[in-house]
Design brief:
alpha/beta; Aspartate Aminotransferase, domain 2; Aspartate Aminotransferase, domain 1; 2 domains; 7-stranded mixed beta sheet; 3-stranded antiparallel beta sheet; 14 helices; 13 strands; globular
């Protein structure tokens, strides 16, 4: 193991991104403008989506999606407990009620059977009108979209995909982002491409046009349309909108990051292959899967500890790796055990038994294109040392 700390994640920023940002500053249009438009067009073309809207975060993309589809007070949205809190916060922020359902034990994605069970329960005991389902493509592995889209037709649901981890995953040959009604992407600093902070919403042109209005104060014209040589000063506020637009400085980074995405994914898959090779013989570990018919984005490499074969807990395992200069994380603390949701909705840990059980044994290992071969070997060596020291 090396003496240098292998951080959990680092962005890959090179001279091309720097030059694009400098050019943006030199041109002088730094807020939403021509580079945002270019980034939107490039992104939509890359994933073969009908249209795209650049925003200042993935959370903003989810919030705008719900507003665009008319989700409001009295409605309910089904989603997963195994996600970051933003997936659920936005549901409450439009006044709707989040309904959590448990996950598949193999991928840890939302279980379509549990979605239907919740829908049937709502029909028998209607407290809310379930209007949408919000699947999360966890770790970059696509959800079972065939089953989810069938349910959407059967129960007249809108489908909003949380693809914060899902670029550039494919489901049966189609990029995630061109399947449901609307799809939200994140470009946070740890994601497969970054704009430092940022997000993208993809969907049909008429929905993206509506989302664009919601994303900037509900105005009928954005700044570029008002202040460019082709614009007009006049605008009207036609929606109770938000302030979620992406600036050109962020889009400048995104333009160059998108050009490198295929290169980034080659490196991610190289690291994944090395991890698979090194860890496959350990009975103390359960490795992540890539189901048939999907192409995993490999945003995260999440191992699961077989705790009955170890003499330490998951938390202790993480500490032992940290002592060996390896950064890790946990994705995620399930929604229903966070104090806010636990107290508001009266959740108990066992309400979603698979999510709670798997949470207690998951560890996210470093996985990013900037990792050197030595970094990868340091992770492998440290993990092997911990397992050998603490196996039962």
């Amino acid at each position: 193991m090396g003496d240098n700390f292998v951080s959990f994640s680092q962005p890959f920023i090179d001279s091309e991104e720097i030059k694009e940002v400098v050019n943006t500053l030199q041109v002088g249009w730094i807020t939403t403008g021509p580079k945002v438009k270019r980034f939107e067009e490039d992104f939509a073309a890359f994933i073969k989506a009908p249209a795209a809207l650049a925003l200042n975060s993935g959370t903003a993309a989810l919030h705008v999606a719900l507003a665009t589809l008319g989700i409001r007070s009295g409605d309910a949205v089904i989603t997963t407990p195994m996600t970051f809190c933003s997936s659920v916060l936005v549901i409450e922020q439009v006044g709707a009620h989040p309904i959590l359902v448990d996950i598949e034990p193999d991928t840890l994605n939302i279980d379509p059977n549990e979605i239907e069970r919740a829908l049937q329960s709502s029909i028998r005991n209607p407290k809310f009108t379930i209007k949408a389902v919000l699947p999360v493509h966890l770790y970059g592995h696509p959800c079972n979209m065939d089953a989810i889209m069938e349910l959407s037709k059967k129960y007249d649901l809108r489908v909003i995909e949380d693809s914060a981890h899902g670029l550039p995953a494919k489901y049966k040959g189609r990029f995630v982002g061109a399947i449901g009604d609307l799809t939200a992407f994140s470009f946070y600093s740890t994601k497969n491409i970054t704009t430092a902070e940022g997000g993208m919403l993809t969907g049909a042109p008429e929905l993206i046009d509506e989302a664009r209005i919601w994303s900037l104060h509900g105005m009928s014209r954005d700044a570029w349309k008002r202040y460019s040589s082709e614009g007009s000063w006049y605008y009207e506020v036609i929606r109770p909108g938000f302030k979620y637009n992406m600036p050109d400085i962020a889009a400048a980074i995104g333009i160059q990051q998108l050009r490198k995405l295929n290169q980034f994914q080659i490196r991610r898959r190289e690291i994944v292959a090395r991890y698979h090779q090194a860890f496959s013989h350990y009975e103390e570990l359960q490795l992540p899967v890539e189901g048939s018919g999907v192409s995993h984005a490999w945003h995260l490499y999440v191992i699961r500890l077989n705790l009955n074969r170890l003499r330490i807990s998951r938390n202790q395992f993480i500490e032992e790796l940290r002592h060996r200069n390896i950064g890790t994380s946990v994705h995620f603390i399930p929604i229903h055990i966070h104090p806010y949701y636990r107290d508001k909705y009266g959740y108990k840990p066992e309400d979603f038994p698979i999510a709670y059980r798997e949470y207690q044994r998951i560890v996210s290992l470093p996985l990013y294109p900037k990792m050197t071969d030595q970094d990868v070997e340091d992770v492998i060596e440290a993990l092997g040392e911990v397992i050998h020291r603490f196996h039962s």
